[in-house]
Amino acid sequence: MLSKKMEKAFNDQINAELYSSYLYLSMSACFSAMNFEGFAQWMKSQALEESVHAMKIYHYVIERGGDVTLQPIDGPDTKWDTPLAAFEAAYAHEQYVTGRINDLMNLAIKEKDHAATIFLQWFVSEQVEEEATADGIVKKLKLVGDKGNGLFMIDRELGARTANFAALAGGGE
Ligand code: FEO
Questions:
Q1: Which of 50, 100, 160, 163 keeps 20 to 30 A from 18, CA to CA?
Q2: 99 three-state secondary structure
């Protein structure tokens, strides 16, 4: 059984993950409007992965006998002037999410909820990957600057990403 404090914190994190999905979908729409279809595809996949993160927590709360209480999702920004601006915002957002996951882990430790600490370990590792990926793209974009050729190549490279639909269907990784 989840403590009420853990239940509330997990519900807040479901909301934060769904907001992340909203944010990346909004970035995807912005890239589509700019005709950067590769960046748009990458962000759409990222949005779907954030839904998977939300669903992992959703299932976990229910499995632990807690109540899922869905909350309103804030509207994300809708416009970024350049791919670099969007990916810098994505990187900053992932750093924020890492902070939230660390807070959740600290709470699980404080509450002596050993099961929750094991569950949260996946998210701790995932955040390392999420930050590294976003940071890597920011660095590449800084390297090419506003050169059309370089941007076109990164757009094409990121367009190869496809979401993990099997995980989406199963609520797994
Ligand atoms: Fe669910 Fe991108 O962290």
A1: 160
A2: helix
CATH number of 4-162: 1.20.1260.10
Could you tell me the pLDDT band of residue 69, with boundaries at 50, 70 and 90? very high
Cα angle 10, 89, 24 (rounded to 5 degrees) comes to 60
State the chain's mean pLDDT as an integer. Answer: 94
For residue 143, the CA-to-ligand 1 centroid distance in Å is: 25
d(CA 15, CA 51): 10
Please give the span between the terminal C-alpha atoms of the chain, in angstroms, as a whole number: 24
Q: Where are the chain's structural domains?
A: 4-162
Q: Residue 172's pLDDT is what?
A: 45
Measured in Å, residue 156 CA sits from the centre of ligand 1 at 23
**Residue 56 Cβ contacting ligand 1 at under 6 Å:** no
- Decide if pLDDT at 160 tops 70: yes
Q: Are 108 and 6 in contact (CB under 8 A)?
A: yes
